[in-house]
Amino acid sequence: MNKLNNLIKGLSLVAILFTITLSPSCVSNKKIAYFQDIQSVNKASLENTAEFTEPIIQPDDILTINIFTLNPQSGAIINQAANAPSLGGNTNTSLSTQNGGFLVDKNGEIELSLIGKLKVSGLTTYQARELIRNKASDVYREPNVQLRFANFKISVLGEVSAPSAYTLPNEKVSILDALSLAGDLTIYGRRDNVLIVRDNNGKKEFARLDLNSTSLFSSPFYYLRQNDVVYVEPNKRKVSASNSAQIQTIGVIASVISVIVLAISSFK
After folding, report:
1. In CATH, what is the architecture of 62-149?
2. Class of domain 29-52+152-234
3. Mind listing the pLDDT tens digit for each residue in 95-108?
4. Is the pTM of this model over 0.70?
């Protein structure tokens, strides 16, 4: 009889453990709200925030270049070439969108009509613009140069509403801007462990940001660079939901054990 009682207790314990396993994980509100360390709801200020540094032009970048002169027809040669189709895009689109621009070749150079080849890799857009303006002064009278990236691309992956690659017209893009483009994090996204993957001169750099803390604003990864990848990791609740088939199997096993326990108890 003692062995039977011990068996019943053991099976009951197993059934309880399976039931606990089946219970859904809860997401604490403390893990959802951003910047929780801001104490005052009326006013708050931060010091030592991250400074924006202009992105550096690299090989395979695409630049939109327009030259304006006192004679509009003289700059039309370059400006018309800039309208030739190449890889690029606009805000909130994927890489399939076509846009004009000049491709920076493997040597870091671009080639402009009447001006020739110019090495622009390693320069900021401001420095490249001044370089082109100085060279264009030999050909055009008082040229005005506009230059920006045509393929300033970031990728947002993981637990966001609209994961995709986004090509932006603005070089000054923060991690919050990127997440806004992707429709913000889902309820299943970990806000305390957002991964940034960055290609720096052929080497990969990694950083993890905590959106729950205002320390985010002082991170050197707060402002993104072209080709950065933002990955939002799923939380435990999402992982549990993804294993629905396994959970159903466990539920069947737990039900069988409960029936066995009741059957043994009836013969006691």
Report:
1. 2-Layer Sandwich (3.30)
2. alpha beta
3. 323 356 899 999 99
4. no
